[in-house]
Fold:
Amino acid sequence: MKVFIISPSLCGGGAERVALNLLQNLLAKKINAFLFTFIDQTDYKLPKKIKSKIVCLNARRSFFCILKLRKILKNEKPSVTISVIRQSNIVLGLASKNLQCFKIFREANPFDNMRNKNWLIKFFTIKLVQNLYPEAKKIICNSIDTQRSLKKFTGLNFINSTVIGNPVLASKINLKTIKKPNEPWFRNSKIKVILGAGRFVAQKNFASLIKGFSLALKTNKYLRLIIIGKGPEQQNCKKLVLQMNIKNFVKFPGFTNNFFGYMKYSRLFVLSSLWEGFGNVMIEAMAVGTPVIATNCPGGPKEILGNGKVGHLINNFHPKAISKAIKNQLSKKKNKKLIIKRANMYSASEIIPKYFQNTPLEKILLKQS
Structure:
């Protein structure tokens, strides 16, 4: 039994983490799995056992991978091939045209993520999706909004689509082993750290988070904001912090390998996105018992928070709403057990067997569960 996982890269995003969690989980179950990437980029420190199962196709552009991947599929004949994001879905779809290939596509974002693309890219993307997606044995949409968006923008029903949340947690998290970050703010009991995380892109709406934090800071001088991640909008966010004269209250540590440390020792996690595919970082915060505030944006946040039962949903993107939510949430007593229980619904052990229902892998995974 051989399984191929396809991802454009391993650059710190939600889909890339899903790809790694799939690989690690399948290898742990003694299944011969390989992860193929288009470019040799990673933000993760990986053990040798995992590295040996990652194959880079070394192509500057995704479409240059099509012929390479087609040759591998013809020669290796994997039992199942799963792609984790729209970009690699299209490449896999084209590479496997007219081949006997049991393929699964994973749709990771509502089509809102194409709002800033030019019309030609939108046109060809939708045409390719309309042509290639019906050939997949299964399309996994990570939220109800993602599934609705797929059907709306393509005009197709996609009876082969199903909604399954992301396998965010590779394993159960031992809270006792999480190290406190080397950050002075976490050593001061008076200070309350608000945390944001993700790629610095317009979608994440970090400017509204910074403005909302600035408003909350006026009523509580012990608040601090840390935003983890990298990206093209980071410099603009730093400029905004300077303009608002809150430089001493906001930090941008970049990418960190002690992600759960920052999550555990922060008082709140805030997701300020305009849209999300799912919202993996919310699950990671909740897994260590940290309360979450999230915008009620298209995608997974409202499902993750049980429509506001396990966290605070903000119904607009205005900084005043974010500020008010921060102040309200800090005044509440957190239900740590409930938050962690909700996060564990999205562990790899819970989710991955659902990914492979009605596939050649199903019986093997059922025997091992």
In short: DSSP finds 15 helices and 13 strands in the chain. The longest helix spans residues 14-28. The chain has a mean pLDDT of 91. The longest strand covers residues 2-7.
